[in-house]
């Protein structure tokens, strides 16, 4: 019995030792496999494909609709509205009278200016082209003045002889001298008038007559403009946009009275933020939408970009904006002047561009880089970037279509083994 127990004890110890060895071997194999599997799986990362897509970049702004062609009527002096013949929405034709203002003294001033101009015009015409009857009259006047002068000379000489003899008084002698001087002056003036009439005015005289005529013309034209302003006449075909006065209203200078315009031609004025203004160029396409017309979309083109910027006050404080004008190129039906509209200005529009999610691009050592997954290993690659948008970045060089890149690589190092935990959609969206 004792021998049997001893033999059984030796056999149990050997089995226990063998079992322990087998268990240790199993644990080692499992551990090795776990480590191997871990190394094979790598660091979990999100990935995306570099793909060629149609890309577009836009600048957004808010603007206001205004007429391209319009005419506004204002009062130029204190007056009274006599008559208004149109209402908002009425069609008007060029030359149509839309209303009248009280002319006051402007009518009389215009008539006086016209009369003065006619006199000056007649004076210049007579000086340049004298009528024969006028010349004949001046000749007769000159001849008569000469005869009067000779008679006065004879009378003077006769009176002087009598004065020297004491036959006449000093007063009579003085009267004879005065008459001789007067007759001589009349004779000289008559000769000068005849000469001017026959030969025409001299340079200074002609210049003076022309200057007087031009001055009279300016006064007449000014008086006519002031008088014409009292009649509100349309200078274009269009529609009445606004009537801001009524018959009988007393208005001050500068009061706007009526506005007409061509509603088929409208444009949008807006301000673009300073940060976005550098991406603007005339000719860029614009999409225009209005809250008042939710089912309509209008097309336009960026017509002008101001060379300067303005400080605009808003609800969130002042900001610097660059004024722009957008011309509506298609149908503008429904866009009313004064409407607030939203603008989408397309600054870049490319049919084909290689893009990746913007989170895939990192900056290291002053260069743009991405991590490309090649056979489960992250490979750092330098790239040249182009357009940046809210969702993606254009790659000009360094990648090719179909390359798998790591999104938000974080602390990933070149050569690290990685495993894609999930793929994100391509940056450009579905093909």
Automatic annotation (TrEMBL):
GO terms for molecular function: transmembrane transporter activity. GO terms for cellular component: cell envelope; membrane. Residues 267-345 form the YknX-like beta-barrel domain. Residues 206-233 form a coiled coil. Its main location: other. The keyword Aminoacyl-tRNA synthetase does not apply. It comes from the Bacteria. Residues 102-224 form the YbhG-like alpha-helical hairpin domain. The keyword Coiled coil applies. Keywords: Coiled coil. It is found in: Cell envelope. Pfam families: Beta-barrel_YknX, HH_YBHG, YknX_C. Residues 353-419 form the YknX-like C-terminal permuted SH3-like domain. Residues 410-431 are annotated as: Disordered. Belongs to the membrane fusion protein (MFP) (TC 8.A.1) family. NCBIfam families: RND_mfp. This is Membrane fusion protein. The lineage of its organism: Bacteria, Bacillati, Bacillota, Clostridia, Eubacteriales.
